[in-house]
Hints:
The chain folds into two domains: 11-54; 59-158, no CATH class. Helices cover 67% and strands 9% of the residues. It has six helices and two strands. The chain has a two-stranded antiparallel ribbon with strand order 1-2. β1 (11-18) and β2 (21-27) form a beta hairpin. α2 (59-79) runs antiparallel to α4 (91-110) and α4 runs antiparallel to α5 (114-134). The longest helix has 24 residues, at 31-54.
Amino acid sequence: MESGKLNSCATIKLLKKLDGLVLLILPIVNLKTVKNIKMAQENINEVLNKLLDEKNRPTGITVICILGFIGAASFNQLIFSDLADQIGSWCPPYLGLSAIIGIMCLVGLWQMKKWAVYTYTWFVGLNQIVLLVMGVWNVAALIIPVMVVGIALAHLKKMD
């Protein structure tokens, strides 16, 4: 057998006694095979790292999602409040549906999905119309949603 080259069927018995027991019998494979496996693993890792780098969530999207999830948790109190009932019987169900759509969009943004950006943009438009019809629209109701849409649209190319 040549130095550095072993037959893949060859075995080396590694005998170590630990309290009188044989520890291990190791099969040894061809060194060339080991090198090929290592190269394949490196190539796979390189491809995976490249894919992960391309799909990294931008900081702006992460901040939007975290703040959105916190806001969604407190939004439930508004759904069941007396204020919502005073606006009209339609308000609590609308707020509930809004919460569900908002959470779905946040999950989609967290996962970097284009549909989440499109759905949220449509949803912002719908909410602005509802506020206008109710006669309570003001510029402040538009500032944060427009910022969110702008940040999301800026990263749309990075999304699936």
